[in-house]
Design goal:
The protein has about 400 residues and is of the alpha/beta class. It contains 16 helices and 12 strands. It has a 9-stranded mixed beta sheet with strand order 10-9-8-7-6-5-4-11-12, covered by helices on one side. A 3-stranded antiparallel beta sheet has the order 1-2-3, with helices on one face. Strand 6, helix 6 and strand 7 form a beta-alpha-beta unit. Helix 13 packs parallel to helix 14. The longest helix has 18 residues. The chain is globular.
Length: about 400
């Protein structure tokens, strides 16, 4: 276990690279965690140093340190209540980097209208990663298109590894062969996130004939080589009835399954729009399975999950608070879905450069996005009501109405 530590306004942000969890602590807490995880010191030696520094007894410092470390242990578990990502940070915690827009598939629910596109040069990608590392960005998500179509993907992944960033790569999985898996297995802190959109019949309907078998083969081969794997399922009107089969498949492989919600970007996709009440029923059922059977389920709507668990209110969205998206052309985005939905004009989107942090903090599109709020999904509001502050049929307010009537 290793941690990255950086200072925010009035606390230190500590990011646990292996569990991918961030917490906020004071200066003493940061010193304890740095000594323990980065310097390899034992707890008694740390306590002795602190008791000498603050002129306190070993026993009193040990009592406080044990309580502190116990709390940390709870907060970095997947069930922990992570408040840091709900705060406005001084700099991004994580960045999504679109490496390529080309794709080998043409899925029915895809955000991209065209699947023939462009590729970011390796030199540009590495320059971006260098600047992000210099500003203590902790995690990178590589996206496409299909990232395995990029000719220098492994070099980009190795660059992330060199900068000790937690790394995820989102893929359809069908281009991953044995030679590639050997290379992936050598990359530290890498999670391969593979799309799985139903049972074999439904997955092939959405992604193309024979794609489920290729996806299944890739998942099993990755697991056999010890590569970290998760799946992501985009819930829509076609596949939502078979979500239990998706979940059981993932449980048999002992891998997490993350569920998110489809958004329509074109009239031709409107038949895929799920009924909001059926979506809410599915979220409730999934959360019950996560609680009762300890299934490894990820749910994208933090606001609804917090409501159901009786936790303090949370925003659904963390874009521009702790996250940043950089597209294949090197432009800085608040939300890719808003871009695809036509909310922004191309000339509004700033280009990533040496001053990206100032842009992320103060540029008009980021300031406007933050002003519009994070409680619900601005992209869904825009798509369904033509207003980023309008009604979101799948957001927390609609859910509360459904829950009261239920």
């Amino acid at each position: 276990m290793k941690v990255k530590i950086r200072q925010e306004e009035d606390y230190y942000l500590v990011y646990f690279l292996d569990s991918r969890r961030a917490i906020g602590v004071n200066a003493t807490g940061a010193k304890i965690l740095d000594s323990l995880f980065n310097r390899g010191e034992n707890v008694d030696d740390i306590i002795t140093t602190l008791s000498d520094e603050f002129h306190l007894s070993f026993e009193s410092v040990k009592r406080d340190a044990d309580e502190f470390l116990s709390q940390i242990e709870q907060e970095i578990t997947p069930e922990g209540f992570n408040v840091i990502e709900q705060c406005q940070l001084n700099k991004p915690l994580g960045v999504e980097l679109e490496l390529i827009t080309s794709c080998n598939l043409s899925c029915r629910h895809c955000i991209q209208e065209s699947h023939q596109g462009i590729s970011m040069s390796t030199e540009k990608a590495i320059d971006i990663l260098h600047k992000l590392a210099d500003h203590q960005v902790c995690e990178i998500s590589i996206t496409g298109g299909e990232p395995f179509l990029h000719e220098d993907l492994i070099r980009v992944l190795e660059c992330c590894q060199d900068y000790e960033m937690a790394l995820s790569l989102v893929t359809n999985g069908v281009l991953i062969d044995a030679a590639m898996i050997k290379k992936l297995a050598s990359i530290n802190r890498l999670i391969i996130v593979i799309s799985l959109d139903g049972n074999e019949e439904i997955h092939d309907y959405i992604r193309g004939a024979g794609m489920f078998a290729k996806t299944d083969s890739a998942l099993r081969a990755l697991l056999a080589e010890g590569v970290g794997v998760e799946t992501t399922c985009t819930l829509n009107a076609i596949n939502i009835p078979v979500y239990p089969e998706v979940l059981e498949y993932c449980e048999k492989l002992d891998i997490p399954c993350n569920f998110n919600l489809f958004k329509p970007f074109r009239d031709s996709q409107r038949y895929l729009i799920p009924d909001p009440e059926i979506f809410f029923e599915t979220i409730v059922a999934l959360l019950e399975l996560r609680k009762d059977k300890r299934y490894k389920i990820g749910l994208s709507n933090a606001a609804i999950v917090s409501e159901l668990l009786g936790l303090p209110p949370r925003n659904e969205c963390r874009a521009t608070q702790s996250g940043l998206v950089i597209d294949v052309e090197g432009r800085m985005l608040t939300c890719p879905s808003l871009v695809e939905a036509g909310y922004y004009k191309n000339e509004e989107l700033p280009v990533f450069d040496d001053n990206f942090l100032e842009t992320w903090q103060n540029h008009d599109i980021f300031a406007r996005f933050r002003k519009n709020g994070f409680n619900e999904c601005q992209a869904r509001s825009f798509i369904f009501s033509n207003d980023v502050r309008g009604h979101d049929p799948y957001g927390i307010n609609a859910f509360r109405k459904y829950w009261r009537e239920r």
